[in-house]
Amino acid sequence: MSAIRKILSPLTARTCLASPIRRAGANRSFHIYSKPSAEKGRTEPQYRFKFLKGAPTVGIVGCPFSGGQGRTGVDLAPNKLISAGLVDQLSALGWEVHYNSQQKYIDIPYNPIPASSPAAPSEGTETFNGGSTSGSGSADKKIQRLPDEDIGKMKKPRLVSAVNQKVAQEVEEIAQKGWLPLTLGGDHSLAMGTVSGTKAKYPDACLIWVDAHADINTPLSTDSGNLHGCPVSFLLGLEGTDVSPFSEWLKPCLKPEEIVYIGLRDVDGPEKEILKKHGIKAFSMHHVDKYGIGKVVEMALDHVNPDRSKPIHLSYDVDALDPIVAPSTGTPVRGGLTFREGHYITEALAETGCLVSVDIMEVNPALLDPSSVEKTVAAGCSLARASLGETLL
Ligand SMILES: [Mn+2]
Fold first, then answer.
1. How far is the CA of 309 from the centre of ligand 1 (A)?
2. In a domain? residue 392
3. Ligand 1 mean position, distance from CA 385 (Å)
4. For tag attachment on the chain, is the N or C end more exposed, with fewer CB atoms within 10 Å?
5. What helix, strand, coil percent values describe the chain, rounded to 5?
C-alpha cells in the first residue's frame, strides 16, 4: 500500500514513509497523496462532478475536534477513518486524493487536549509543526493554555470559533482549487467552518443536512450550551449568533430556503419553533417511512436544487443512521436510517454531479466495544465512498 503513496513533505518524509498511519496518530504534520490507476480500480469517478476543475481531486480535511460537545473520543475519528484505508479507497474510485494531517487544529491556545487522547500530543513533551524528530525549526512552540470561559450559555466558544475559522480556511482553499473538500470530524459544530468555506467558493451552494438532530439551536435557545447543536443557526445568522468571537469571522452565508434536512427524529421545542418560523424544509424519519428514501431525496433536491443546477454541500452526521448501523456516536437516537437508506442518500447525491463538499461527522471511536467501533468507522468510510461515486454495480 505504501508504494502507491507519495509523501510530498520532505521535512517529514522519513517518519511518514516508515509508517504514515501510525505517525498520523502521533500528530506529525504530513501530507499523503494517492493517485488513481487502472490496477487500483478506476482511473476516473463513476460520475462527472460538474462543478470541480481538472482531474477529479478530493482534499481530505481531518479535524480531530470534540470541543462542540461533552464527550471526548470524537476527535479520534479522522485518524481512524484514514487508518481504515479511506485514502486508497477513494483513489480506487478514480480520485486523486490529498490528505493533510491535523496538527494545526490542535495547535490552538484554547485547546484543552485530553492527555489520554492519541489525537493529541502529550502536554509538555510533544512539540508542534513537524515534531521534535523532524528537526523542524518551528518545532519548539509548546502548547499554550488559555481559559475559555462560557459566553452566555455557550461552552468553549473561543475554541469552537478558532477551530472553525481554520476549517473554513482549509475547506475554502481546497474548493478554490476546484477540488472537493471531504471533511472528517470531529463533532458537528465543525459545519460552521465547512459550510462557510464552501459558500465562500460557491455562494449559491445549497446544503443537505443528514442528521437525527436539527443542530439549529441558537446561543440563546440552547439548553446544553454544546455548540455542536448550534451550527445551522450561526450559518443562517439567527438571533444571538452575532456574538464575539464568532462574529469576527463567521458571516451568515445561508438562506433558510437553501437548507434541507433528512433523517430528523430528535428535535427539541425551540428548534421546532425555529424550523417553523423560518419555513425550513425538513424530512424526518416519519417522511422516510411514509414516502420511502428515494422519494424523500427527490423532494429534498426539488426544494433546494430544483434544476440540479446548483452546487451541493452534504453535511452528514452518522447519528442519522440507526444505532444498529452506526452505534459509536455521541448522541445516538433509535429509529434511524437503515444502512441502505443512509447510503442511498449519498449515492443519489453523487449521481446528480452537483456535490462540491462533503462532511462525515460524529464518528466516536472511543464509544462502545471494538465491533461497534469497527461498524461505525466502516459506515463512515462507505458513506464517503458512496458520496464520491461508489456504486453497487
Ligand atoms: Mn449533527
1. 26
2. no
3. 20
4. C
5. 40, 15, 45
